[in-house]
Write a structure and sequence with these properties.
The chain has 17 residues and is mainly α. It is built from 1 helix and no strands. One of its GO terms (cellular component) is transcription regulator complex.
Length: 17
Amino acid sequence: VERRRIYDIVNVLESVG
C-alpha cells in the first residue's frame, strides 16, 4: 500500500491551497 506517498502529495496540496 502506498498510502504514505498519497499523504505526502495531499500534504503538499493542502500546503499550497
